[in-house]
Amino acid sequence: MDSERSKTPKVEDAELDRAAEKEKRVAPYFYPNVLLAVPAAILSTSDGFIPGFLIAASLSIVGIIFAIGSLFADADGDGKKAARRARAARVLFWANFLVLTVPLIFWRLLCELNDRFGLF
Question: pTM for this one?
Fold first, then answer.
């Protein structure tokens, strides 16, 4: 009877295996941060300078640094450190995208429409 119990996998072992598998899968958000940094940098240096785009580009660059750090930590085999840095890169991307970039693009378009058509 004891041999039957020892052969069945424990729930704790399955949870540990899932946690180890989750640590191996790291999504560093490198490319999304790059795709956000390039237009923000271009828009920050173009006509009608809006300082928010410079802030958005800076946050994207910090996200890129965290993503690269996540890749290096993952290559070193430190899954927890890689996951933390990937999470920071993800948070920076989404906060930057939703709070800064999208509203600033709409603001810029609204200003362009106002200049062309005199809406406001």
Answer: 0.69
